[in-house]
């Protein structure tokens, strides 16, 4: 364990740079803040690189990480590196987990999140997927980083343990076509004719949720139809006078995931 007091220290400057998503991806690292996130990252067997600890924290508040990876520093200096408004005094860097594509082949239930732009939505989907026993998420297209701090926080750390694989759209569409005969495919669509509660869900299952602003585009819907999949409608009864015409993507995913695991 060593102590640093200067913001000009190279270690502090490097971690400050890791607040930039591109730098995190380049170094294959993520930032976890606070007791819950750090302990869940450790429980998921992620490899800790560095743990920053406010120098006023009691020893029993420090997670079990080898001493040579721990740096203590004044709380005001640590606060400049954290994301939370009221930091607990713990910030850690971990190696990012990676999963092979074979994870998808062996998964009973997969959530495909298409072009999810908001970290909170992806994090909420991951939390619900993990809670309901989904085996993996396929983040397709221009999707937010699953290790964005807001995604980590909203997922309550589920993104550390739940396999989340990223693919560009052509590769993801190929996956749907190549697994058409071995997996049931269900896609949420606002113009669908089949109520999601009326579907006889089976496994292996691939559930597809599109971006909440546009929904699934024609290529995705065509791939669903080619796979003899089911377009699923979530009926709504909007309050009169409101302009609500769709659900939040994470909410839509949660409803169908919950229904799909009841049978």
TrEMBL record:
SUPFAM superfamilies: alpha/beta knot (SSF75217), L30e-like (SSF55315). Keywords: Methyltransferase, Transferase. One of its GO terms (molecular function) is RNA binding. GO terms for biological process: methylation; RNA processing. Pfam families: MRM3-like_sub_bind, SpoU_methylase. InterPro entries: Alpha/beta_knot_MTases, MRM3-like_sub_bind, Ribosomal_eL30-like_sf, rRNA_Methyltransferase, SpoU_MeTrfase, tRNA_m1G_MTases_N. It comes from the Bacteria. Residues 110-257 form the tRNA/rRNA methyltransferase SpoU type domain. Belongs to the class IV-like SAM-binding methyltransferase superfamily. RNA methyltransferase TrmH family. This is 23S rRNA (Uridine(2479)-2'-O)-methyltransferase. The lineage of its organism: Bacteria, Pseudomonadati, Planctomycetota, Phycisphaerae, Phycisphaerales. The gene is aviRb.
């Amino acid at each position: 364990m060593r102590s640093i007091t200067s913001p000009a220290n190279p270690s502090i400057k490097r971690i400050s740079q890791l607040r930039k998503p591109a730098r995190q991806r380049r170094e294959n690292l993520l930032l976890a803040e606070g007791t819950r996130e750090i302990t869940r990252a450790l429980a998921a067997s992620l490899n800790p690189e560095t743990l920053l600890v406010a120098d006023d924290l009691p020893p029993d508040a420090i997670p079990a990480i080898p001493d040579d990876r721990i740096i203590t520093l004044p709380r005001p200096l640590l606060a400049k590196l954290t994301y939370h408004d009221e930091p607990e005094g713990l910030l850690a860097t971990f190696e990012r987990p990676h999963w092979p594509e074979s994870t998808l082949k062996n998964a009973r239930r997969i959530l495909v999140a298409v072009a999810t732009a908001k970290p909170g939505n992806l994090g909420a989907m991951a939390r619900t997927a993990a809670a309901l026993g989904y085996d993996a998420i396929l983040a397709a297209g221009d999707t937010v980083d699953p290790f964005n701090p807001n995604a980590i926080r909203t997922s309550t750390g589920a993104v550390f343990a739940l396999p989340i694989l990223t693919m560009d759209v052509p590769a993801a569409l190929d996956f749907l076509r190549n697994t058409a005969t071995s997996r049931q495919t269900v896609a949420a669509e606002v113009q669908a004719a089949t109520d999601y509660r009326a579907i006889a869900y089976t496994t292996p299952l691939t559930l597809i949720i599109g971006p909440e602003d546009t929904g699934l585009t024609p290529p995705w819907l065509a791939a669903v139809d080619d796979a003899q999949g089911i377009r699923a409608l979530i009926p709504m009864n909007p309050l009169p006078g409101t302009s609500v015409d769709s659900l939040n993507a994470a909410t839509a995913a949660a409803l169908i995931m919950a229904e799909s695991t009841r049978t």
